[in-house]
Manganese transporter (Alteromonas halophila), 398 residues
Amino acid sequence: MAKDKSGFIIAAAFIGPGTVTTASLAGANFGFHLIWALIFSIFATIVLQDMAARLGVATGKGLSAGMKDMVSSPLLRGFFIALIVSAIGIGNAAYESGNLTGAAIGLDAFIAIGSGNWAMILGAISALLLWTGKHQWIESTLVYLVFIMAGVFLLTLLVAMPDIGAMLTQAFSPQLDVSSITTVLALIGTTIVPYNLFLHASLVAKASQGQDKTTAIKASRKQSAMAISMGGMITLIVVATAMMAFFQQAATMDAGNMGEQLKPVLGDKAQWFFALGLFAAGLTSAITAPLAAAYAVCGALNLSDDMRSKHFRAIWLAIIVCGVVVAGAGFKPLPAILFAQATNGLLLPIIAISLLIVMNKSNALGEFRNGLWSNLAGALVVSVVVGLGAYKLFGLIA
């Protein structure tokens, strides 16, 4: 019986270069005025991941198969298949470009050959690791590096002695306007990651085999809430360090000086350490995102999810190739990463609404179907995300 560590894997998965970059830009440009978006994101992530986990435990299947098999209408089933293939494919391709760009920025700080060239090299490394199937050990090492980086951010915050009063004042003065909406969507998109819903359901389904379902769900719920809250706290700390270094200061943040926020502790080595953390976060996510997409799409299309099957390999390879092409196209790195997170924020409502439908419609869920409070929380999450997406689209066409 496998030990369920899915909550911590999900938390580690959303702390990629997109999270570090987006949180840094949020703190540098808006201070604590957008903290409301981060708090909402953590709440929404816990709510949606709980639904995905319950689905996985109750059915013993991943979210793709669960969504598809729990509807009898061929039309609705076809919709779910098209949704999974398109939304997860597009979303993960966008995520992959951000992952590779973030890792490339980190490596380019050590050996300057251009982030586009590094993106191609990193794409090839990710593909090689996935092809051999021996990627778990390097993922573990890189995740440790990510959490070491988070520890340095926390130490920096404590040493710099932040103005708590100013932070609270800004936190209670929330901002939402044309200038901040992209960053708000990016904060949501980098925390509530659509592919993590599919990944979580599959991991819990495998880990809970042979266990009492009620016990497994309670354990998963407790672990996920703790791990995701921890991930949110790390994001909050990054926002705070960036705020102290750049908000309302003469200097503005760019790809070349993001590490300045760690200078109070690391001095001249700050940029190098930040680059190492960005590389670790990026490569970890560059492996996880295409892997999750392959599981999701294979489940939707009734294809083998054996890591050595040709269909499985073709899907994750296509995601990596798309990520490399976009990352190497010469876009400015920070806007490219921010755009990838905002894209996921816009795709999220489609997945969230579908998940809500399945959690209420399926007879196979039995006692694990959504209750009143789960539905109210889910409806709140969907309403806010849809509203923000509509606000963004209206701003583009107005």
